[in-house]
Fold each of these.
Amino acid sequence: MERKEVIRKFLQTLLAHKSDAQPFADDGSLFLSGRLQSVDAVALAVFLEEKFGLDFAEMGFDQERLDTVNDIASLIEESSNSRQ
Amino acid sequence: MNTTDLQRDEPQSAAPAPRPFSFLRGFRIIPRLETYPWVVAFAQTIAGKATILALFGLGLYYATWLHYLHNPRWKVQICFLVVVTALPQYRRIVLVLGTVCWAFGIWWQWAEHPQIVQAAISLVLAAAIFFLAIRFRTSWFGRRPVATLLTGFALTVLLASYLPKGGTLRTMSFDFLPVFGAYLWFLAYSLIDISSRKRDSVSLQVGAYQPIWGSSGTPFPKGSAYLRRIEAKTPEQLAVAQLKGLKLLAWSIILDLFLNFVYMPLVHGYLGIPYYEFVFHLSLLRTPFKWYVGWESLIADFLGKLVDFSIFGHRIIAVCRMAGFLALRNTWRPLSSPSIAEFWNRFYYYFKELLVDCFFYPAFLRYFKTWGRWRLFASTVAAAGFGNAFFHFFRDLNYIDELGFWRALAGFQSYIFYTIVLSVGIGISQMRQQKADKKNPGWIRARLISPLCVGGFFCLLRIFDYTYKRYPISESFRFLAHLFNLVS
């Protein structure tokens, strides 16, 4: 499955827990708009750690960089580049 | 920690379940002006801006007059709002200038003991720490700037408490440390911002330090990075932010009128329920009183403080929104919270966010990585327990000066107990919530039973929620026992 698709599916699950079924674009804000919150950021961080091997202890945690699907995809890209 | 922030202003969740009295759901005391296209269009015109500013200025004046206050703060704020509305392209610069003027007021003009020199030194020191964290980004300090800052501050306070009482050095230390402490958490947010891709310069960071819209030791609304993200980018966004600011101020005035002209006279006058402090002192003096009087006074105090605290937060956020920053409310319907974690999130949002940013994330992402299913719980206890106690202990430095470090810590026992129970409660609530998310609890449970239990938990916990040495924790337990008629 395409990387962005995997991210989108996970974010949809987070939103579904809040009865939020509204669609979101790849560049649509999720945290700054208030649709997702700090505890969701934690769930997302765990997901990214487990699924894509990101290490936030090393790279630092900035919620702004997890705000959209595109942001998350570029963060994963950046992380995998730095590991190579 | 678990609410949709969006719901703080405008519930947009899809497919709400049918519920009793759903026809009342759409009713609002203050209409949602920001959703009317013609109002938003008008708010973007010069006449519209002038009208909103005039109404807001009137509201600020009335809110001040309501409490017989004769300070010029509202005038300073409205002047700032006029300038920032006229020059939206220079909003952050105007904010910095406004905040500097505000600092002059709070540390010099409006202060009983002027400390403007200490404030200036604090800002210079904050700027130096910010520069050093950037300069030595790969050092221990650069990688853990907030932890180093907080540890350094705590150690400095500990050392200062060992200086001889009455000596010049001690007096100077305890003149300076509370002022720097007032900027401590603002600086912490700046240090978090150094890892951002588009971090603000130190001069813009200063605009968020004890900003002109008002604040406490808790940064409202968070730091410079957050302001950058929520700033209105278009005239339409500015119009919406200002309309929401005006509405929030109006709501705070309605709450103020309700609290002072309906709630207090009704509860303490007509119903004759004594003040909580009074009943607590009866318990201290071993004067008998009926158990239900204890409950009445505690519940009345809890509800009154809830409204009072909402007013405090709404006033600050209203001015912030008027300045063009669409910040979330500090307090949003805490009494309808279905869980302990959510109540805490809804009651004092910006304090919760501070603890999340400074304690929870570092603990969760760095220190408790291998804790498996207890990772969330341990990080929550680190934030709501340790972080909460740390914040309050190092906020009230006058007690450390007066009693010495260790005696002040011993006198802090009740609040430490409060933070332990609170953090364990939030931790369990979060773990339960993760499971509960999968099934629908039903309307009665979600809207009635759970909020009542949550409210009851926080109401009882209030007995232990005081941060300075007034009486030993045993007296709080005695009052608690009194509520259940276990002591006379």
Amino acid sequence: MTTVLVVDDEPGLLRAMQINLTARGYRVATAATGRAGLAAVAKEHPDAVILDLGLPDMDGTDVIVGIRGWSEVPVLVLSARDQEAHKVAALDAGADDYVTKPFGMDELLARLRAAVRRAAPAPDEPRLETEHFVIDLAAKRVTLRPTGEVRLTPTEWQMLEALARSPGRLVSRAQLLHEVWGPGYDSETHYLRVYMAQLRRKLEPDPANPRYLITEPAMGYRLVTS
Amino acid sequence: MNSGRTHDAVEAVFALPIAFLGMLAIGVVAVATAPSGRALTVLVLTCLLVATVSAASEPRASLPITALGWFTVAGFAAAPVGDLKAVPMSSFGAVVAAGSVGVAAGVWYRSRVARGARKGSHGAVFTVTLDGVRFHAGRGQHDRHTGLSTRRLVGALALAAALLPGLTAAMVAARGSLALVDEVLFYLLAVVLVTLVGGFWPAVAAALAAGLLLNWFFTAPIHTWTIEDPTNLLALLMFVATAVTVSSVVHLAARRGTAAAARAAEADSLLGLARTVLVDDRPETVLAHLQRALGLTGVLEERVAGAWVRIAGVRPKQATVVVSAGATFRLRVNGDVTAASPRLLEAAAAQAAAACERQRMRTQAEQSVALTAGNRMRTALLAAVSHDLRTPLASVKAAVSSLRQNDVEWTEADRAALLATIEEGADRLAGLIGNLLDMSRIQTGAVEPFLRVLAVDEVLPSVARAVGAGSGVVLHVADDLPLVRTDPVLLERALENLLANAVRYSPVDRTVQVVAKHDADCAAVLIDVVDHGPGVPIQDRARVFEPFQQLGDRRTAGGVGLGLAVAKGFVDAVGGRLTASATPGGGLTMRVQLPVAGRMSHQAGALL
């Protein structure tokens, strides 16, 4: 059974989360302060953490740092702070995704599933199918429906692969740059924009309104397959 | 004040000793070669010397040079040496002519060199342009070449007029016991004294007079202009040359002293100016310093849109000096500027302009600091308000979006819990929005209390019910409470906020007490809201009533920090008083003091 730890000081929200997650078969642990949250991570060994940033005793970003000191558990930030600086700080501290309040329950659950999936052992499913294209990770090939194979440059493929390995999950800009270009390119975010635009031109039915390759402003990119 | 010194004539102070020493040399040669030395050679050499020195020196020096030249010619030209009667008038004419020609040539040459550059006659009104400083000065009361006042010149001449005849009379009386050399030294002493008092020119006059006196009274044959012994004539000439040289040296030293003193005064003044500006750098301070140190009144003006506008100081009726500082500032000075050097005035103008600019920059810096603080405050406020609005909204939306999902079958209990969450969130939003609106009413002065007489126990139970449902609020209301005159709605809102705050900070296992009683002389009803929470340090207690004290989104129990500010605003509006104090044993006690009806205070009336 997948265990999710929810850390938030808002009792109403804690209750709503608990009801939802329990209804979907998760085991839920809750904490109302950062300290209690850190203790619960150690005690409950959750498979994912949903964390509010504005906690009464300490800043949520420090809680992330505390968790990352010894655990790789996926951390999903849930915060009323919607400024870019806060998002970047939380992701840099080690958060896996960032959802701003108020949020829709479906979206949160989808992101939670993606975060948990990433942590789980690599799926034995090298094919990713969508309505418009099929990505074959084993054969390193993309086929458009119904026209056929698309040729991608090596860089384009590496980017798509990085996103397709955990569909639905946020891949941060720094992570993408590091994976595709290697160390030392962490601030060259315009590379990402250029290659993402090329990928969209080749894969998206309407490149101007992307449906699969989603930009998360200030944070990174996400490949949505549904 | 001397500009273009290279084209100036040699000063008399230097020219006269040179001429006199030259004539002494001619005399020595004439005596040494006598009797073969010829009158014509002496005449020609002397004329040449007179003409050359006259040409090179300032014109007034040529008079004594010509006079001494005539004596030299007369003394050494023909045997018997020193017999003035033997000298023809034509040689006198030659010397005078040489002097005149020399002076004319010198003046012509200098005027040609200086033509167009400047008009350089001493003492006239002149204009000097010095790094953008225009400086006009009238004739000063000091002779800038002697550095001495007219009074001292007259004094020195009077001294010479008294000293020389007296000395002569005394030495004539003692003629038997004195040698010529003693007499010469006494006269030298007199000349040096005159120099000390009156400077160079009185000394030259005194030296020439003493020479004539020596000739008439002490060189044989006495009581004639004739001198028997050529060595005596030489001694006489040597005396005059020495006297003039000594007085020249004394004069130069005195002049340097004067100049040094002037420079020291100027440096003092500049230092004072600099110090003044360091302590208090307003343009008025600089002008005050100018007034104090030099007795000058000044006005600082700035060029704005083509016209000069006064910045500081009183506009003088007439300005003798205008000093510009940069392109946009100028200093107009009125008063006697002779004591102030243009450098000093220039410095004062620059300082005044700089002070003015610094003052402006300081004002701007203060403004920008205030703006920055205001911006920071607004940003923090916005963050806090948006957090407080979003948090309950997030609960509401999470619960609503849960209920709308159709992939889950909710149990009755889950459904009820989610609906409760929605209602709670909506209530909190309503409370927050209510407080925001109340605060803006208070801050814009739009609160209008509707006062009526009532008993506080009409209000307290409903407030306690509204806030303290299930959270342990205990009411203690004395049963002898007088009626108060207040607005029940505002009082209720104030008490709700106080009570909500107390409940929020109270530990779960401690109750909040509300105690209502009257004060000692039964003039007011006191309502204490007592909690046992963490309390507020005494130095922060006044600030808890300021709005938005809980900034940022990290707080112990939520709330932008409007509740207490709203409570204070409403209690003030109904003529009451709200104070914070420490609860004995820890925690905070809020006391609302309401005036008893019938003793309605005027201050509440004034507030309406």
